[in-house]
Design brief:
CATH topology of the largest domain: Hepatocyte Growth Factor
CATH architecture of the largest domain: 3-Layer(bba) Sandwich
Strand content: 15-25%
Strand order of the largest sheet: 1-5-3-4-2
Distance between the termini: 154 Å
CATH class of the largest domain: Alpha Beta
Radius of gyration: 57 Å
Number of domains: 4
């Protein structure tokens, strides 16, 4: 009884009665507008972190916690100097410190110190740091509106129908738009605008329509198979090409042997160009091809037996020159020029208003040209090729 009277003299009675008021009172879905003197972002969207910051600041009398995406990309904490009128809003969680939380200082009665003989030495107090463990917040996030819930439920149903159609028709569409669960579609719809959800639904509907239309198209007709007659013609052509290739190789072998022996044979039969031999083969029948190869072999054999060992001299290339046969002055002739085309070429003093005589001429043909200019008398020339 004596101890109780001593405690009542030291601690005021109103502090014991109103001690719970010193705690912070939190209100869900409530905003306290105005009187903000400090605001900052929170790493984790936990309202108790904002409440703890207000407890540590002696200037703070109220606080407001804002969920991510409401007043910023991340969660926000607003510390206030005073609590204003409460306003209903699902964006925030607010709390306030009661006015009785910080009682006014009061003079405590002075107690007479005990006599020195009654004092007992006490060990020095050890300063220990108290570690408190955070408890998860008891405040739930705001619930979406009923209209939004109904829309997202319909959105998730349509998305699952499109996913099932994709698997049923084997369309092969992949990605988050096609492989999510119903809960995933529903949560995505809640956290995104309604226009984006409608665009996704339309995109799935168009993709399924394209897939179904592609499946309903008639199959492409197969190309007609070759008939037996056409097949025989193809096989015959391939055999003829193979036979002519063999004929050309044998003819070229005879030509090389004849050149090594120095036989000096000329003509299309004894050229090293394979094209004339191949064209000749196409004009001959199978027996005629065999006889032609035998004839070439026999001629080369006769040349070898006759002992002709003279070296092979390829035919000289064709040459041409011009002969003056008419016109002023004495007649003359030019030197020989190589005739790659087997004709005489005239490229100088051959263009005048009277006519243009430039070009190529065969052996024996005559033409005119103007060596002294178009105003002078022309000269008559004749082509000579050998």
């Amino acid at each position: 009884m004596l101890m109780l009277q001593l405690l009542l003299r030291i601690i005021p009675v109103w502090t014991i009665v109103l001690w719970p008021a010193a705690a912070l009172a939190a209100f869900s879905d409530t905003d306290l507008p105005g009187n903000t003197y400090r605001s900052f972002q929170l790493v984790s969207p936990v309202p108790s972190f904002c409440e703890r910051a207000c407890k540590r600041d002696g200037k703070c009398r109220a606080w407001t916690f804002s969920w991510p995406g409401k007043r910023g990309k991340r969660a926000m904490c607003f510390l206030k100097t005073a609590a204003s009128t409460k306003r209903r809003d699902t964006c925030c969680v607010s709390g306030m410190r009661s006015l009785l939380a910080t009682p006014l200082p009061e003079k405590k009665p002075e107690l007479a110190p005990p006599p020195a003989s009654a004092r007992q030495p006490q060990p020095p107090e050890k300063k220990t740091k108290k570690i408190t463990r955070e408890s998860p917040p008891s405040i739930t996030p705001p619930r979406p509106e009923p209209a939004k819930q109904a829309f997202c439920t319909r959105y998730a149903d349509l998305a699952m129908q499109a996913r099932q159609a994709n698997a049923r028709h084997a369309c092969g569409y992949r990605g988050g738009r096609w492989n999510a669960s119903r809960r995933g579609y529903y949560n995505w719809c809640l956290n995104n605008p309604r226009a984006a959800a409608e665009r996704n639904t339309q995109a799935r509907r168009r993709a399924i329509a394209r897939c179904v239309a592609a499946l309903q198209q008639p199959p492409r007709p197969e190309p007609p198979r070759p008939t037996a007659r056409l097949r025989e013609r193809i096989v015959g052509t391939l055999r003829e090409l193979e036979s002519c290739s063999t004929y050309t190789a044998r003819a070229l072998a005879m030509v090389r042997r004849a050149r090594r022996n120095g036989c000096g044979f000329t003509g299309r039969r004894w050229t090293l160009n394979p094209l004339p031999h191949f064209e000749a083969c196409r004009r001959l029948t199978l027996p005629q091809r065999a006889r032609e190869i035998a004839r070439l072999r026999a001629r080369v054999k006769r040349c070898r037996l006759s002992g002709a060992e003279r070296p092979y001299a390829p035919p000289r290339p064709a040459r041409f020159r011009w002969l003056k046969v008419g016109g002023p002055g004495p007649n003359w002739r030019t030197r020989w020029y190589p005739a790659r085309t087997g004709r005489c070429r005239l490229v100088r003093h051959c263009r005048c208003p009277v006519g243009d005589t430039c070009g190529g001429y065969r052996d024996g043909q005559q033409t005119i040209y103007w060596p002294d200019g178009c105003a002078a008398q022309p000269t008559l020339l004749r082509c000579q090729v050998r």
